Amino acid sequence: MGRTALVTGGSRGIGAAISKALKAEGYNVAASYAGNDEAAAKFTEETGIKTYKWDVGDYEASEAGIAQVEADLGPIEVVVANAGITWDGFFHKMTPEQWNKVIATNLTGVFNTVRPVWPGMRERKFGRVIVISSVNGQKGQAGQVNYAATKAGDIGIVRSLAQEGARAGITANAVCPGYIGTEMVRAIDEDVLNKHIIPQIPAGRLGEPEEIARCVTFLASDDAEFINGSTISANGAQFFA
Ligand code: NDP
């Protein structure tokens, strides 16, 4: 019987690719999502991966959702905190609502996802925590003060968790994707994408969700046991941290 893995935001985009890749490696995968029931139902139909709906920004909802996953599939040994949103705007126009929503989902959401599974990982002396950060958390990005703050925060989270978890057999690492061709990025104006974003990427293209999924399956594997508190950048040479 394979290990159980939870992927938040695992029904679409990068998360869907991660869920599928982990399933292909033999994990029992649960994918959570926020509200797009149609996409989740389609994903389950196509992949056979069970989906669960809760808001990662809500601690009680996360605890309850995680308890349900564990009741269905067994203790979560691999957790991928992938759910995330953008709500961009220049800082002089950014509202407290824009700031708070992105912080709640992308940063507090990581706490809400990892905290409930952490005691079990400590007891069982095994765990893999993988947080999906971003190149924009490494380098900053105009128009994304809120988003960049959360993604830089992810790096602080995994570096701290790594130090707490290392003796308990738990690793915590971040993956920092560059621009990946998901709905989040395709929603950017095509002119902006072609004139301003793709020219910044030496590879000359967007990344594929599967390229991020392969980083995650490696970090989840036994082979990655000594990699702890690291960030893997997958950005087509756009930025070197
Ligand atoms: P998508 O918008 O394609 O998918 C987001 C997923 O997260 C969906 O499953 C969505 O659920 C879920 N989600 C969003 N908010 C919540 C919430 N409050 N609670 C639970 N689930 C939620 O995003 P991407 O695949 O593009 O991004 C995935 C991660 O990768 C994010 O953390 C993002 O910041 C990061 N990233 C993405 C990059 C890119 O280029 N795409 C680059 C660098 C980092 P639902 O379907 O219900 O909406």
From TrEMBL:
GO molecular function annotation: acetoacetyl-CoA reductase activity
Keywords assigned: Oxidoreductase
Protein name as catalogued: Acetoacetyl-CoA reductase
NCBIfam families tied to this protein: AcAcCoA_reduct, PRK12824.1, PRK12826.1-2
Record EC number: 1.1.1.36
Pfam families xrefs: adh_short_C2 (PF13561)
SUPFAM superfamilies, sorted: NAD(P)-binding Rossmann-fold domains
Domain Ketoreductase per the UniProt entry, residue ranges: 3-183
GO BP terms, alphabetized: monocarboxylic acid metabolic process; poly-hydroxybutyrate biosynthetic process
One cellular component (GO) term of this entry: cytoplasm
Family under the similarity heading: Belongs to the short-chain dehydrogenases/reductases (SDR) family.
Organism field: Roseovarius faecimaris
